[in-house]
Specification:
Length: 249
């Protein structure tokens, strides 16, 4: 993990984890390059996190970053899964606020502005896909997994899987690392003493590439992760420093 990097020059960093998304590279460039000048929290930048892709996606993203100021990337040695890629993004982000969007762009980066209006009042603002453009199996399994997760976490969030979120960076960097972490970001924010706001956002069908999720990792995986979360949440240590001399000038 870097002690500091270019993201410290920005107020807001959009983290885009991706794995084998070469077919979406052109859309990533177009959508993000057009949004940054419109972002309500400025200046804003983009941090791509390649999760060990085996296609031409990393080379395309490297070219994209060379063409645009405020576009950066990190490449992981191997595939770690979405939670690992997000954690790497959090650890390498040094702007006060960060956002997260999936590389398939089934959500619109323009909707970050809907979330950012609540930044400061809440430590996390998460999107809720009001009208999901997914197949029946995907929507049904997601509803079941969300209901089961809420029963364990009591976080009150209806759509934790929505890939559009804004988080205060110092809170995100305190999230404990574990497989399946991405399913519990609102609950982890609350566990760290933060408040969470839900905002309806738009949702679109996937237009290129292939989903990395199937019935097993949409239902059976999350069920096991819920038990892991319950164990961890009862042992999580959250502290705040009352006084110190180490930071005195």
């Amino acid at each position: 993990m870097s002690s500091m990097n270019h993201t410290s020059d920005y107020q807001f960093t959009i983290i885009v984890p991706f794995y084998n998304e070469e077919e979406n590279a052109a859309a990533m460039e177009k959508n993000l390059a057009s949004f940054l000048p419109l972002c309500s929290m400025s200046p804003a930048c983009v941090l791509f996190v390649d999760d060990g892709s085996t296609d031409n996606g990393p080379a395309l993203v490297k070219e994209i970053c060379s063409r645009h100021d405020g576009f950066f990337y990190i490449r992981l040695e191997r595939n770690t899964g979405l939670s690992g890629a997000l954690k790497a993004g959090f650890d390498n982000c040094f702007s006060p606020w960060l956002g997260y969007i999936d590389a398939d762009f089934q959500t619109d980066p323009v909707d970050f502005n809907l979330l950012l209006q609540y930044a400061g009042e809440y430590e996390m603002v998460t999107g809720v896909r009001a009208k999901r453009n997914d197949g029946f199996v995907k929507k049904a399994s997601s509803r079941f997994a969300n209901a089961f997760r809420r029963a364990f976490t009591h976080d009150g969030v209806s759509d934790t899987g929505c890939p559009l979120k804004v988080i205060r960076t110092d809170v995100a960097r305190r999230f404990p690392m574990f497989t399946g972490m991405h399913r519990f970001l609102p609950a982890l924010t609350q566990m760290a003493g933060g408040k969470v706001k839900q905002v309806e956002v738009r949702h679109y069908p996937r237009i290129a590439g292939h989903s990395k999720y199937h019935l097993f990792n949409r239902i059976l995986g999350p069920l096991g992760d819920c038990f892991g979360y319950r164990w961890m949440s009862k042992r999580y240590i959250n502290y705040r420093i009352k006084d110190d001399s180490v930071n005195e000038q």
